[in-house]
Amino acid sequence: HVQLVESGGGVVQxxxxxxxxxxxxxxxYGAYIWGWFRxxxxxxREMVATITPGGLTNDAASLKDRFTLSLDTVNGxxxxxxxDLDAEDTAVYYCTARHQLVTSREYWGQGTQVTxxx
Length: 118
Fold this sequence. Notes:
β9 (91-99) and β10 form a beta hairpin. The protein is mainly β and 118 residues long. Helix content is 0%, strand content 51%. It is globular and about 40 Å long. The N and C termini lie far apart (40 Å). It has no helices and eleven strands.
């Protein structure tokens, strides 16, 4: 079982930057695919980025130039670095973990709100 706790959300002005952090209770990083999803109010959740244990990343095409996911095994943290934020980036951002082999083992954090507003 994996507990995921997101932090770093808040209100930021257009053009600004934020770093979201995810602290998992599970330290067996190599067994999981880690990721960030987001949900705009009224819409379904969409994938932002994922990373495999081997470091292979998969990013949403529309976000890859502005958003960067990284896995820091030293500090036990999954980051999402966001820059040049726009109002359309306003959403609840979720940290996720999915077991590579037993894919039914999928976990979600509670989410952290990011609001881009002047």
